[in-house]
């Protein structure tokens, strides 16, 4: 977890992804800027409905077939735009440049295809390997992620494996073409803690070997502290705070981040009551006018109700979207 | 010594599985395989473990939602092990459950008023509509909701609010023991802390006893007085929460504690990574069931089932590493 001073491998600029439902427009992602630096692990944290998964789906171009659409904004991979390109070009990116692993390995794997075939598919699509070569490579990567009897497993089906093993298969699928970026959307949420520890260890190890950058989406702040270099906190389709992992955990400058950190019980630390954030995430159809967190915020001021705060910047690229960070309101939380 | 509210002895639940041609061979999934423990009045006992360890089955066996294979359950001085449904009804007033999924455990076609009034009617705790309605509103207020929520239906509520409704329903009959099975694991962190605080407040207010079942060690540690760690249908270790955290004895407890991600980027990590995953409960390993993943397994662990070793009054462990010290 050292400081990374590299170029941005992925830049998300002013992304707006809206869902056009029968009941109106849901602004799932509403103006998001995220930079992923080469070789670093970026954590995106937020609760359900904060837009973190939709951001990932927008990057992966997986919104087709849903009611969602990128209405505004740019996504640059290595400096090149990947939103306004042809279908064919988009397809080439998936798997070869950007790999993705999902939360629920059972629903993301095809239940009627052999495991080997599912992993090989990417290789056969994106390289001119022969089937035999692809098979050998598949066995090699399975061995790399410590799957026992890899040569047998490739002829088995997902249901024959445990949850942790399935997630390993997903990881193998995502990484078989050595992508530049791995997007991991809650990859350990469905797993038990001891298995989670195994998978996190594995992802970090592979990162070293392959040298990819990771966008790690999770709601678990413990996992973030463990694996990420940088953190983006999302709320109601917006980034509310971003910075390096130490700053975010030790000097949070947004009341939401602070509230989140205080509301989790910590092992070995005894407290009578947990600090909690009152209320619920607002209904996307009835968003508050000003700061979206204002109705739940204990520091709420008049201006918060009226006007949405811009980003205020601190040292080390630490940014917070809270009026309190403006000099005339105190300058910090 | 506090009064023992619930005593469980040798509790077992085996699910038969038929195998072979025409199901001629019968095997058993040993979901709960001989569990003993006591619950003292007014305490919160946490049961943790990974999926498939039998923690939820244990909860359902105690509330008699499923029939046990064998074992003894003594509740409030009465042996309820062999109670039939009719006899159980009187006990159910005293043992209530809160479930994990507030979406699945509330009837979508019943209004909140009906949901909370149902136990009141069944147990004849109120008479007449007026009194029932009054009590429903009282219960709603206790869990942080309001009277205007009463005519609404479950789909109109958020996850956290639904869990509050589930809690109100459980409390309607003024139970002595509440079994909460993963009550906060479906909730977001900020909502999770609200519900945990509520459960703590209600416990103080009504002098409740909780069996709190969850997989999240930090949550269990926060709310419980004592914690039992389960693995493949048995307890591995039971101890006071402080002692369990400071002095975990069973290698599984140690591994489990070390696997929990700590929300502090500077935390030191000397992590014990367990190999493999939980073996199937259909063919559990012989001897100590944990020996296949244990980093300190000895020869005798493979053959001999570890017995309860008492470390002190509140701390006992099932592991061969400690049973020679006696």
TrEMBL record, chain A:
<comment type="similarity">
    <text>Belongs to the ABC transporter superfamily.</text>
</comment>
<dbReference type="InterPro" id="IPR003593">
    <property type="entry name" value="AAA+_ATPase"/>
</dbReference>
<keyword id="KW-1003">Cell membrane</keyword>
<protein>
    <submittedName>
        <fullName>Oligopeptide transport ATP-binding protein OppD</fullName>
    </submittedName>
</protein>
<dbReference type="InterPro" id="IPR017871">
    <property type="entry name" value="ABC_transporter-like_CS"/>
</dbReference>
<keyword id="KW-0813">Transport</keyword>
<keyword id="KW-0472">Membrane</keyword>
<feature type="domain" description="ABC transporter">
    <location>
        <begin position="10"/>
        <end position="261"/>
    </location>
</feature>
<dbReference type="InterPro" id="IPR013563">
    <property type="entry name" value="Oligopep_ABC_C"/>
</dbReference>
<dbReference type="InterPro" id="IPR027417">
    <property type="entry name" value="P-loop_NTPase"/>
</dbReference>
<keyword id="KW-0997">Cell inner membrane</keyword>
<dbReference type="InterPro" id="IPR003439">
    <property type="entry name" value="ABC_transporter-like_ATP-bd"/>
</dbReference>
<dbReference type="InterPro" id="IPR050388">
    <property type="entry name" value="ABC_Ni/Peptide_Import"/>
</dbReference>
<dbReference type="GO" id="GO:0016887">
    <property type="term" value="F:ATP hydrolysis activity"/>
</dbReference>
<keyword id="KW-0067">ATP-binding</keyword>
<dbReference type="GO" id="GO:0005524">
    <property type="term" value="F:ATP binding"/>
</dbReference>
<keyword id="KW-0547">Nucleotide-binding</keyword>
<dbReference type="Pfam" id="PF08352">
    <property type="entry name" value="oligo_HPY"/>
</dbReference>
<keyword id="KW-1278">Translocase</keyword>
<dbReference type="GO" id="GO:0005886">
    <property type="term" value="C:plasma membrane"/>
</dbReference>
<dbReference type="GO" id="GO:0015833">
    <property type="term" value="P:peptide transport"/>
</dbReference>
<dbReference type="Pfam" id="PF00005">
    <property type="entry name" value="ABC_tran"/>
</dbReference>
UniProtKB/TrEMBL annotation, chain B:
<comment type="similarity">
    <text>Belongs to the ABC transporter superfamily.</text>
</comment>
<dbReference type="GO" id="GO:0055085">
    <property type="term" value="P:transmembrane transport"/>
</dbReference>
<keyword id="KW-0067">ATP-binding</keyword>
<protein>
    <submittedName>
        <fullName>Oligopeptide transport ATP-binding protein OppF</fullName>
    </submittedName>
</protein>
<keyword id="KW-0813">Transport</keyword>
<dbReference type="GO" id="GO:0015833">
    <property type="term" value="P:peptide transport"/>
</dbReference>
<dbReference type="InterPro" id="IPR017871">
    <property type="entry name" value="ABC_transporter-like_CS"/>
</dbReference>
<dbReference type="GO" id="GO:0005524">
    <property type="term" value="F:ATP binding"/>
</dbReference>
<dbReference type="InterPro" id="IPR027417">
    <property type="entry name" value="P-loop_NTPase"/>
</dbReference>
<dbReference type="InterPro" id="IPR013563">
    <property type="entry name" value="Oligopep_ABC_C"/>
</dbReference>
<dbReference type="Pfam" id="PF08352">
    <property type="entry name" value="oligo_HPY"/>
</dbReference>
<dbReference type="Pfam" id="PF00005">
    <property type="entry name" value="ABC_tran"/>
</dbReference>
<dbReference type="InterPro" id="IPR003593">
    <property type="entry name" value="AAA+_ATPase"/>
</dbReference>
<feature type="domain" description="ABC transporter">
    <location>
        <begin position="6"/>
        <end position="257"/>
    </location>
</feature>
<dbReference type="InterPro" id="IPR050319">
    <property type="entry name" value="ABC_transp_ATP-bind"/>
</dbReference>
<dbReference type="GO" id="GO:0016887">
    <property type="term" value="F:ATP hydrolysis activity"/>
</dbReference>
<dbReference type="InterPro" id="IPR003439">
    <property type="entry name" value="ABC_transporter-like_ATP-bd"/>
</dbReference>
<keyword id="KW-0547">Nucleotide-binding</keyword>
